[in-house]
Fold these 2 entries.
Entry 1:
Amino acid sequence: MSQSAFITGATSGIGYATAKVLASRGYRLGIAARNSEKLEAVKQELEMKFNSEVYTYVLDVRDAEAIKQVAAQAVQDMGVPDVLVNNAGLARGLESYEETDEADIIQMVDTNIKGLFLVTHAFLPGMVKRNTGHIINLGSTAGLYAYKGAAVYCATKAAVKTFSDGIRIDTIDTDIKVTTIQPGIVHTPFSEVRFHGDKKRADAVYEGVDTLHPEDIADVIAFVLDRPLRVQISDIVIMADQQATGFMVSKTP
Ligand code: NDP
Ligand code: 8X3
């Protein structure tokens, strides 16, 4: 039977690109996000273009009970996934910490940390029981290099990296692999979400930068998954050519 993958945040940006690449490689997919219409549109596209088997799950990863229900349903629909891509995540705001909105802090922590931890908690026991599985966690260069106005976002991404290392240790006696992907600047709706829908401000982030494309990250994920069993890629840092660290971007190439 073909390989299966469960991807959170598969309706936009990196998650969407990853869904397309994996569908093109014959994976059966479980795709999750909050917006049901977008999920259905992605499902239809993947079915039409790649004749894929796709299951959709409306899920807010901040909801612990919903995660349990969706994971149980996904296992019923497609079996324990061979691959879990913990991609759903976001930044909110770019203010100094003392000025950061409390709701934004909570949303980042609940989505990027709690959600990712609990989605993993829901699927990992099945993987351990089967002695196989690959967990791909979306960290960020922001988790390696903090930058101004992003203390919380950067800390959530540092947590993702440390969490990945921790579960890699916990599953060392199994064939389970854990990979953290840490991209730099990727042009997606990420900045529009960060700036609460302010498109002009979001566009300015990418102006004059030959950014990464979501497909660049999806290709790396496919590469990581294609390695033979003996190879475990723990971390990948991938930046735009114009980047030196997380937020150090040259706009005069
Ligand atoms: P997008 O905003 O394009 O996509 C985010 C996806 O996550 C959407 O599908 C969104 O769907 C989903 N999502 C957001 N919140 C939730 C939630 N609470 N529950 C379930 N799904 C949710 O962002 P990117 O593709 O850019 O980002 C994807 C990941 O990559 C994030 O973890 C981000 O931190 C990370 N990253 C991004 C970089 C970049 O420069 N863009 C660089 C480094 C890392 P919906 O709103 O319908 O729920
Ligand atoms: C998203 C990339 O540099 O905007 O993680 O934080 S950055």
Entry 2:
Amino acid sequence: MRVMQVLSPDAKGLAAAADLLRRGELVAFPTETVYGLGADARSDKAVARIFDAKGRPRFNPLIVHVPGVEAARQIAVLDDRAERLASAFWPGPLTLVLPLRPGSGLSPLVTAGLPSVALRVPAHPVASALLAAFGGPVAAPSANPSGKVSPTRAGHVLAGLAGKIAAVVDGGPCTVGVESTILGLAGDAELLRPGGIPAEVIEACLGQPLHIGGNAVQPTAPGQLLSHYAPSSSVRLNVSAPDPGEFWLGFGPAAGKADLNLSLSGDLVEAAANLFHFLQEADRVADGSPIAVSPVPEHGLGRAINDRLRRAAAPRP
Ligand code: TXA
Ligand code: MG
């Protein structure tokens, strides 16, 4: 068991974090979406450690974080659509899956051997400063054990991964609160995961509707859903009036009596920022009782919120 250092987001802490990354160690850091578990994306050994620390069962591909579009162009091929989206939404919570440039230098573990790579430029000042201090691409999934609720505070990272990683840079709570939107651009633009930038906003920028692909497909049977973001209590969705004994995670003014309310005014941005912290809190306070969640509208950030809630409620393996 190793001690996890908690580093402050000042020059000294960032230099120490960059140094650990250079030595192939794992460092968790804040982004505007969730805390990421970072490793040098060019090192097989460092990237393999991510899967080990998270207990991630499959070597599925990871998102590579870069400081700007210039660094992105060295790793992937950006067509006109990618350039337009990058200038509109980077830095920010949008991940683009693009053709991998030969000789990119990335570990094949990052892309799971695919000819494409997922890239994003995070908007958090601590993430930008760390990428600048490190000077290379950083692979980073969310900094939580596989299948558990994503971390939006350094304390969540400590609770899930202490003893398994070298350090966490504490940059306070994340402002967006759900992971980035993932857009496939290998062929027709395809929404692979709803996230921090609403699909409607991307459609408006591209001037065309998105195909719905991969993870984002509305499930037709609960069994098709991969359990993920799961608290230890069971989760019941679209509940307007909870049963006695249930912990009520509310949304909007109709849930004024809820135990916790994602946003009393019904603001989806506020609800996204609160989602993972409140799921963790609900799990702690409910202490094994079922968690009942109010309906959340399926537009804007509501699509990302409902995607995470459906996975939290899915049958456990
Ligand atoms: O907000 C976020 O995106 C956070 C923060 C830390 O930046 N990161 C995150 O990373 O959620 P991660 O590694 O958990 O996201 C990985 C997902 C995969 O499950 C897959 O859906 C998609 O990114 N992905 C990565 N590479 C891909 C590829 N080449 N083709 C298709 N999908 C890919
Ligand atoms: Mg994750």
